Write the structure tokens for this entry.
Amino acid sequence: MRESLTRRNRRQLDWVYVVEGVKRFSSKMYGLIFTYVWGLDLQNDWAYVDRICSTFEDRGGQVYLVELEADLEVRLERNKTPHPLEHKPSKRDVKRSEHDLKLTAEKHRLNSVDGEITRENLH
């Protein structure tokens, strides 16, 4: 039976990837792109993003935050395109993935307001 990942489990799994990314980044790797669905209404998500940024910055890395914004309908359509289906196992159960997208959009604020994110290198 497949267990679903809770937000906390995902964060823990993400953290393993971040740590590995930092190790590789520190050994002359040019960079790393890390994506995250940020619940801007959740203090824990703010702390998590700060922790990730600090992990790189403390080792001399530069962090650029890029906010992507799209309507729910667009996100649902993109969710079914070949790239996510091929590269993201969590997207292959399209029905469940669509449910998760809708639920996240209903429960959380996913786009920032002007001036809310004050870190340098915000794009």
User: Anything to note?
Assistant: The two ends are 41 Å apart (CA to CA). The chain has a mean pLDDT of 82. Residues 7-26 form the longest helix (20 residues).
